[in-house]
Specification:
- The chain is mainly α and 156 residues long.
- Helices cover 72% and strands 0% of the residues.
- It is globular.
Length: 156
């Protein structure tokens, strides 16, 4: 059994955002395994760097989709992302000065934050886009959002 398992209530779009979330979960699981097995600081450090980089890329993609569809909670969501990236950088710095135990704590924090963030904050995007009639709103430029619709697994 994996440390952090994908569940149906984590589904947001059955597309790009879910793919990103699944990859982040894999990275958290890999980090947890490495720390549980007492891997060296170099290995864990590389995993933390990869996780940080991918998280930043994911946040950018997610925010682009939200901007495209005029998601009303975008500003607040961006603030959550900025705060998390600052927290992640601070924890990574502590890890670099400390022990594997810090990384183990970090994998737990990442699992818990990601799980709650998807189930609460990201879920609002899913609720905003459902029913699909939201795409018919006149304030949404459908041509500009066509790629976002495809990324969200929708069919125009």
């Amino acid at each position: 059994m994996a440390y952090f398992e994908w569940a149906d209530d984590l589904v947001i779009d059955q597309g790009l955002i879910d793919q990103d979330h699944r990859h982040l979960i894999e990275l958290v699981n890999t980090l947890h395994t490495a720390t549980s097995q007492g891997c060296g600081q170099e290995v864990v450090g590389r995993l933390l760097q990869a996780l940080t980089a991918y998280t930043q890329e994911h946040f950018q993609r997610e925010e682009q989709v939200m901007a495209c569809v005029h998601f009303p909670h975008l500003a607040g969501h961006q603030q959550l992302h900025r705060q998390f990236m600052a927290d992640l950088a601070a924890l990574q710095s502590r890890y670099e000065m400390g022990s594997i135990a810090t990384a183990a704590q970090l994998s737990s924090l990442l699992r818990d934050w990601l799980s709650l963030h998807i189930r609460r904050s990201d879920r609002k995007l899913r609720e905003y886009l459902l029913p699909r009639s939201k795409w018919a709103r006149t304030d949404i430029d459908q041509a500009a959002c066509l790629s976002a619709t495809a990324a969200l697994g929708g069919n125009e």
